[in-house]
Every structure is written in structure tokens, then in C-alpha cells.
Amino acid sequence: MRRLKNLPGFAGKEKTSNLGELRIAGDQSASKKISQFCVRLEAKQRLRFNYGLTERQLLKYVRVAKKTRGSTGQVLLQLLEMRLDNIIFQLGMASTIPAARQLVSHRHILVNDHIVDIPSYRRKPKDILTIRNRPTSRNAAKSESLGGNETPDHLILSLPKNGEPTGLVNHMVNRESVDLNINELLVVEYYSRKA
């Protein structure tokens, strides 16, 4: 975690620290030359670990982003941000992306009133996400911090007093609302020979 600096999806939003900033200051004093390959590799690793993806999954997302119209880096971030496990994390229903992945795979999440147990399930605008109305689902979500942090502008979280928390996807995510300090073009450049 110190090497890859601040990863909110991996360590949680509130648990991030200044360890990465201390390392950066130390690296500048060492004046060790870092190759371009190393810079691209680190950007790829940060993206991969933040979203909890395998190498094969990230390569598949890069290939899909290259075939889609638009900037490949922005399309890649849109694909990753619209994953179900990431949206559960962004809504505050889970403290980290791995915790959100566990909620989804244990069938605690409903999307448009249907059970979805695939964490990589791609969300679309106007989708409604709720926690199942079961005691075990409510207990799993209560152990997480609901609504503790600010939700991005493409999502809405409603916390009714008697009902279950409900999340709504307003629109597709844009680059400004992604709270991740990664240059996505470096990731695309890293995979330019493989994809």
C-alpha cells in the first residue's frame, strides 16, 4: 500500500493516509532514475489493485475500451467505474471494493428488483440498487458504513428511516467525478502492445 500510494477502493475512503506523500518526498531525494516502463507499470498496478481486478480482466477491459468510440482512457475508466461492486462501494454500502464484491457474490444486492451475484455486472443509467429484505442482508450492510462519505454526482443514495437504503445511477460517470489519482493514458500505453 505504501508503494502504490492512495488507493481508496483497496484501503477504504477514510483509511487513506499520508504514507504515499512521504514516499514521494523520499524518492525525490534519492534521485534514482525511473524508466518509462516502470511509470506505466506502476499506473497499471495502481488501477488493477484499486478495482481488485486480475491481469486478464484488466486486459479485457482495455480491449473493449479500444473498440469503443471515444478516448480509450476515459472509456476504460467508465467501464471500471460502472461495475456493480464499485458502485456499491461508491454509494457507501461497503467500506472497500472487496467488501462490496462479497456483498454482491453472497446475493445481498438487488438491481431493479432482481438478484445479481456478478460483481463485474455493468450498470446502466436509471438502474436502482437496493439491499435484499432479509435479516442476513441487512446485517451485512449494517456492518458497513452507509452514507459515511460523499457520493459522486452520477449516483444518488437515499436512506429512508424504515426502508432499505437505495442507490440510483443517474448517468454515465465522467472523468471529473472519478476520485482516483491515476493517469489512465499510461495504462493504455502499457497495454498498447498486448491489446
Automatic annotation (TrEMBL):
It is found in: Plastid, Chloroplast. GO terms for molecular function: rRNA binding; structural constituent of ribosome. Pfam families: Ribosomal_S4 (PF00163), S4 (PF01479). Residues 133-148 have a biased composition (Polar residues). Keywords: Chloroplast, Plastid, Ribonucleoprotein, Ribosomal protein, RNA-binding, rRNA-binding. InterPro entries: Ribosomal_uS4, Ribosomal_uS4_bac-type, Ribosomal_uS4_N, S4_RNA-bd, S4_RNA-bd_sf. The keyword Thylakoid does not apply. Residues 82-141 form the RNA-binding S4 domain. Its main location: plastid. Residues 133-153 are annotated as: Disordered. Residues 13-81 form the Small ribosomal subunit protein uS4 N-terminal domain. One of its GO terms (biological process) is translation. Gene3D superfamilies: Ribosomal Protein S4 Delta 41, Chain A, domain 1, RNA-binding S4 domain. SUPFAM superfamilies: Alpha-L RNA-binding motif. It comes from the Eukaryota. HAMAP family: Ribosomal_uS4_B. Part of the 30S ribosomal subunit. Contacts protein S5. The interaction surface between S4 and S5 is involved in control of translational fidelity. Belongs to the universal ribosomal protein uS4 family. This is Small ribosomal subunit protein uS4c. The lineage of its organism: Eukaryota, Viridiplantae, Streptophyta, Embryophyta, Tracheophyta.
